[in-house]
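quick one, 169 residues, struct below
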Amino acid sequence: MMVSAMKDNSSSHAGAPASTEARRGTDPPHRILVVDDDISIRQLHTSLLLRSGYEVDAAENGAAAWDALGAGSYDLVITDNDMPKVSGVGLLKQLRAARMALPVIMATASLPQDEFTRYPWLQPAATLLKPYTLEEMLRTVQEVLRAADEQLAPRTAGQSQPPANSWVL
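---
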């Protein structure tokens, strides 16, 4: 079951995350999916991220998160690992198998380091070991989103660009 924490579901957007330059304009805020089987942690993260200006959806486990990812577009996933149905590592495996380059923050009490060693492509963008402060979580979210936005920004920033209708060989 997915719980939507967005103020207005009609404001959700589809497609890839916007670049850093576009975010300065009129694009909607980053959209984040929070995945945790502990309802109080899920609500705490959701509330903090909403107050910080993000659009947020929440899911109670990896299976519900996978359904949400199939129904919408997100810029970031924050997930616990130890959950029923599909774990955080299971969700990461599904994301990578589907070739979704979505950044993931694993916020958990026990990191599955053996899985990350065995399957290096599962390594999340960042990890937070419980207990952590809300400030640490928010700072990590900002850093991961900034890095993702920079990867999407044109690599030729600062260089002159040819007119849009000209051919470049």
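The helical segments are 20-23, 39-51, 62-71, 88-97, 113-118, 134-152.
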